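Fill-in record for Putative damage-inducible protein DinB.
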Amino acid sequence: MTESTQVAQELPERSFGWWDMWVSPEDDPRDDSTLVGERAVLTGYLRNYRLTLELKCSGLDAQQLARRSVPPSNLSLLGLVRHLTEVERYWFRKAMAGEDVPELYVREGEDDWDIDGAVADPAVVEEAWQNWRAEVKYGEEFVAAATDLGMNSPDGENNLRDVLVHLIEEYCRHMGHADLIRERIDGRVGQ
């Protein structure tokens, strides 16, 4: 048996159709139809991509969430949750609020512990989602309290508008990864 034949036999059957969307259109929590004005557009798109992360991970157990995409990649959906937690934490707490907070997923000699430490343990999964939700909440509250999207970070190197655009870009890039990882797990293709 060739390697490509063996890999093909291990893959889930690809499935796509409106009948097999992550959620039915009427239940989809993402909405950009009423976004008017710069703040609403930026925060609305970021909210929708955060919701997309949750949708792409929904219904999976710890083993599936920790499953790596394709060797030699170390990416997994759980690793993406942990990575995006660090992204949210860095940009809102450290860069914009000037807080001196430690990284959540740091290990001596492990540069990618947010990704590499994503193991198939229900407690690790629960902690990752709790941390992610806490950082998202902090970011939402920080933005809501800001009177001007042009506000600068304490060091003057960043402004809130740029940070929001960067987070949208970061989520967009990783939702592409999440699409492929999810398809590798169970054949589902995202909307």
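KEY FINDING: The chain has a mean pLDDT of 85.
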